[in-house]
Protein: HTH luxR-type domain-containing protein
Amino acid sequence: MEGGRRVLLFTEGDRGAMIADAIEAGAQGVVLKSQADGDDLVAAVEAVAEGQLVLSPEVAAVIERDAELRPRLSPRERETLRLLSQGLGDRQIATVMDISQATVKENLKRIRVKYVAHGRPAPTRVDLHQRALEDGYDETTPDEDAPGGDAPAEPGP
Structure:
């Protein structure tokens, strides 16, 4: 990591999506508060300081379980779902994303299809909001805030 910083996530949460996102963003370890005493936490801090990856079997199981259930949404689909989970209607989502309402409806249709394919149908807006909460799509993730949105990064010189 830049500047030699190492990150250890110490959390009560057992949401695999959140944990996976933290690791993807560069966290080198995750310790669940429910699974660690003081000695475990000190050992995890020392291990991360030495550059080791720290994931307990419980954390790995949470990530694996959620990865199997969480559909892969495109950045634009994630943004659509995030805005929906904030209570915005199709017209408002279209305005914020600078797309047509028809595109919003198409994004929502694709999102629903992906959830059905993962055995977690979400036929209503309330269901979609619940899926967004369960899977961590209700929060802004770094790639959604990056300039260019869902455009691939341009290769360097």
User: Anything to note?
Assistant: The CA atoms of residues 3 and 26 lie 13 Å apart. The domain at 71-145 is CATH 1.10.10.10 (Arc Repressor Mutant, subunit A). DSSP finds eight helices and three strands in the chain.
